[in-house]
Design a protein that fits this description.
- The chain has 163 residues and is α/β, with parallel strands linked by helices.
- The chain has one domain (38-160): Cupredoxins -  blue copper proteins (Immunoglobulin-like), CATH 2.60.40.420.
- It has helices spanning 3-10, 21-33, 45-51, 106-114; strands at residues 59-65, 71-73, 76-80, 84-89, 95-99, 129-133, 140-148, 153-160.
- The strands form two sheets. The protein has a four-stranded mixed β-sheet with strand order 2-1-4-6, with no helix packed on it. Strands 3-8-7-5 form a four-stranded mixed β-sheet.
Amino acid sequence: MSSTATANASHRPRIPGPISSGVALLLVLAAACGRSVPPANRPDEVLRAQLGLTDKDEVHRVTLTGGSTEVLDPVQTMIPVGAWVEFVTGDGRVHQVSFEADSLEAGARAFLERTDQMASPPLVNQGQRFVVSFREAPEGRYPFRAEGNGGPTHGVVIVGPKR
């Protein structure tokens, strides 16, 4: 082969060969065991300092804003058992979050009552938050109501199996 042919051959994309079933199994197991929390769901420095959270803890955010009615972003939040949800004010209006006792399954209601997480205090400053731990929470739907200066609105946290 000439030197020109050798140079061109080195720039050809390499086509990977088949992965052995043993290597594939190791890759799947490594991915499952080494599951990392996506950067967007990692706790910030305040939560690390105040609650002792680490990169292994998963925090989901619901932003509260207002106007003629309360606005939630997102309205529905799906999390695994063990994760946290922080309700954060995105404006300077007053907001309050309360889980709807009559709409909760008995186990979910007992969990929130036992952990004193049924409702937030009034959140009056932009960036203020109500953080709820779902460690040891039963799986299921956790409907909540957001109230403030505007009309109330409803959302739900859905707790699924631990990942």
